[in-house]
Amino acid sequence: MRDHPSRPNRGVFLPPFDALADPRLVADLAVAAEQAGWDGVFVWDHVRYSRPVTAIADPWICCAAIAARTERIRFGPMVTPLPRRRPHVVARQAASLDLLSGGRLVLGFGSGDDWLGELSRFGDEADARTRGDMLDEGLDVLTGLLSGHLVEHIGPHYRAEDVRFLPAPERPIPIWIAGRFGNRRPLQRAARYDGAFVIAYPGPEGIRQVRETLAAARPDLTAFDVVVDIAADADPSPWAAAGATWVLNRFGPYELDPAAVRARIEAGP
Description:
8 helices; alpha/beta; single chain; globular; nine-stranded parallel β-sheet; TIM Barrel
């Protein structure tokens, strides 16, 4: 999903926290990003976060607001822990968002972390290995339903019996799989989809290692995205040279100043 094959796509990476915990404001910032020449706006997906964060907006509602207010930019939740959601509900939401936006949605998925008790405090699966299995199975269900074809699935974690979801997206929605640097399983999983969102990398040299690992599972990376996030004012050039196809400028997560965020966005990529 390379809109600009001669350079990395540039995105804004927003946590909808505290001063930004308002879908209307997130949509305003997305409009500003589109006007300033950014290629995408992506929002974090959390139900709770560490102090001093207290207020959090729902990322899917933020995405709907972005879809309705913009015309060109890509957008999506980055990333959604699919094991804490129902794959068939996510499929319905995704198909509707993609239709609303005219085909601009990107889906970011991962197994999630419980370092804040974000899963266990709500009775969701806390075991990381089990969540990985749930993610794999959930992705099978979700992509099947998004295809518009008949789905017949009975698995250890999910069921989808004799169902077909319409309307289906006009073209497949890109799926990026998140994983921490050094963890091979997420990269192997990502190689089956459309992109890898690399978290906690040591630097641009790590992206070269990531591409090598991906190439072992998927020799042709021509249509595959390698996605990184950097500080709001960081230089994207080293990441592009290392092979990143999307570079997201990250804001927050603490002490977010809407005016400062807007100013950086309006300065352009």
